[in-house]
Amino acid sequence: MSEHDEHESDGLDSALRVLAADGEAQPDLSGAQIRRRGEARGRRRRTAGAAAAAVALIVGAAVGVPRMTGADEDHREPAATSPSPSLPTPAALPAASINTEKGVLIVNKLGGRSRPIDVWMKGRPFVRMMVESKYTEAGLTADLFPGDKYDYTARWVIKLTGAGDSPVYIAQAASRAYPSSNVISVGSRDAKWVYDQLEVGDLVVPD
After folding, report:
1. Any residues with CB less than 8 A from the CB of 162 and at least 6 apart, and which?
2. From the CB of residue 162, how many other CB atoms can be counted at a distance below 10 Å?
3. Of these four, 87, 94, 111, 164, which has the most CB atoms within 10 Å of its CB?
4. Quick check: helix, strand or coil at residue 34?
5. pLDDT in tens, the chain (207 residues)
């Protein structure tokens, strides 16, 4: 190597050493100032992180609330409604009425029209009753005044019952027709017609 080349190498080494020394040089700030500057940077980083987290929570809430609200609406029980007042059941209309003093049974099942039928009954006022059963033929015991009994086989028998009262029967009159306190006797021409008109559950009331 020539002397010129050695001088250039020494100059390069010197320059490199200067640069290295500059890189290793300590700053003009004291140690306390450096620590305070580091702590300030840390606080700024923590503050920025907390702010970012708060923003993320707010955004998430704004996006999630409608979904949660919608889900709640999908599964929400319907509001209870007060039951509408039930209308009173209309009272059943009587199918027939009986006037024992006049001896008339009036049937009211002809599309609004009525038909009077002559009957025979004695010894007791008639009260509100209901048709309990029907028989094309049945054995009856007529209660005859002043205490006699008369057993016979009757046709087209309708049994009427009422609260606290003994049964009353509507039936075709016997060949020996006696006025009875528990049998309303109907003439042979009308007995089957009355039997066909009145049904179980029908009301028969006094006129």
Report:
1. 127, 128, 129, 130, 168
2. 17
3. 94
4. helix
5. 555 455 445 555 555 564 555 555 455 556 666 566 666 666 666 655 555 555 455 555 555 544 444 445 555 655 655 666 666 555 568 899 999 888 999 998 766 688 999 998 886 778 899 999 999 999 998 887 677 888 889 999 999 999 777 899 999 998 766 778 889 999 999 999 999 999 999 999 998
Answer yes or no: are the C-beta atoms of 172 and 186 closer than 8 Å.
yes
Confirm if 153 and 137 have CB atoms less than 8 A apart: yes
CA atoms within 13 A on the CB side of 203: 10
Beta strands in the chain (DSSP E): 96-99, 104-110, 113-120, 129-144, 148-162, 165-172, 183-186, 203-206
CA-to-CA dists, residue 168 to 143, 146, 149, 160, 194, angstroms:
11, 18, 15, 5, 15
Closest to 171 in 3D by CA, of 206, 202, 198: 198
pTM, rounded to two decimals: 0.55
CA distance 17 to 76: 80
- DSSP annotation string for 61-98: HHHHHHHHHHHHHHHPPPPP-PPPPPPPPPPPPPSEEE
| Integer Cα distance of 83 and 128 in angstroms | 35
Place of tokens 């010197």: 14
Task: Please say whether the beta carbons of 203 and 93 come within 8 A.
Answer: yes
